[in-house]
Recover the amino acids of this structure.
């Protein structure tokens, strides 16, 4: 599918075919492709819980204001934004950057210093912005990649974040910016016309 | 261009052709397509300053730790996440939702109540997460749409946010999660191999 068409025809789908599951290989491919999203200093501060089990989806549905699509979609991804992604991934990223020729070993200290300056200590407000923005770049990539694999999605933030953290063992310092239902559209469903968007001149200023 | 190929081949480009500008129509098309990104309750809490002017790019470069690509790329987009997107857009969104058949008029009050519950009052921490996540969905859509229009991008968060706000008249309650250089790749440049990514099993748990 053409990339512009994929973006133009991507819609948030309310009706998934509950009879049609996603093959494991397809789900893995989806996550692998989405994981090519860029991130701050390539720190990739996101994690995913891919909920496929019927019983676990029931639990998730209860955390998500009883939205039927949470149970009807074959997979629901809990997107986890991790403010500790800095500490967790910086060594592997820097090591690989040196190996691939992106930076010289002697730049390690200044790179770590810049990361520290920009994102502050764990629990700082900058860390929250850092984690959420990057996890959302990943999330959008999931939704676009899905189109290329014949899948539909629906991002949701109508849920009780505390309940999801409790039920799915997510530590309290993490943020769940959204959950994404993934699956195949229910046959015979007709979509409403695309919802309201502002005109370019209403949200862009050219300088 | 195929959507999967677009995602797999998207790279953060350091070398833009400074001689090649983006036609106004193409830039507008890019922003229009990216603006189809989904958002919380379709509230679209993002704004963009598209910096094209040579002098203004010089100013922006000074705010961005003197990164040459800020001046070399023909356009740099300042992505603005707006916590006040709730108040600004909710009426237009609800009106259109009723018109298009997404909701009944009598659901207006409960919808507004749910928005209030989820995102809290202006200046609340939830509002920051709300604004940043949605603006980042838009930002990723810009980077993907660019590929379909033959353009390359580079998202940056190496900048002094306070300086950008001051120089570009962005009110202090807004957040600038990133700026994105957009343009054409400099001829003759060879990219390094793609940087490190974790394996699926390192960031996904299946349940």
């Amino acid at each position: 599918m053409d990339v512009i068409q994929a973006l133009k025809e991507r819609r948030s789908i309310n009706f998934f075919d509950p009879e049609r599951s996603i093959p494991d290989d397809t789900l893995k491919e989806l996550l692998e492709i989405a994981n090519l999203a860029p991130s701050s200093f390539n720190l990739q501060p996101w994690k995913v819980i891919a909920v496929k089990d019927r019983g676990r989806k029931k639990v998730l549905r209860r955390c998500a204001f009883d939205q039927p699509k949470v149970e009807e979609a074959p997979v629901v991804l809990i997107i986890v934004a991790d403010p500790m992604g800095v500490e967790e991934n910086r060594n592997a990223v820097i090591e690989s950057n040196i190996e691939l020729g992106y930076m010289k070993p002697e730049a390690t200290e200044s790179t770590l210093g810049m990361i520290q300056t920009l994102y502050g200590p764990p629990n700082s407000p900058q860390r929250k912005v850092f984690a959420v923005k990057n996890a959302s770049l990943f999330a959008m990539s999931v939704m676009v990649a899905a189109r290329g694999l014949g899948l539909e999605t629906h991002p949701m933030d109508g849920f009780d974040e505390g309940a999801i953290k409790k039920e799915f063992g997510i530590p309290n310092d993490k943020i769940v910016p959204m959950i994404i239902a993934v699956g195949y559209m229910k046959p015979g469903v007709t979509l409403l016309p695309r919802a309201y968007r502002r005109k370019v001149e209403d949200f862009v200023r050219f300088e």
Summary: Chain A has nine helices and five strands. The two ends of chain A are 35 Å apart (CA to CA). Chain A has one domain: 3-84+122-189.
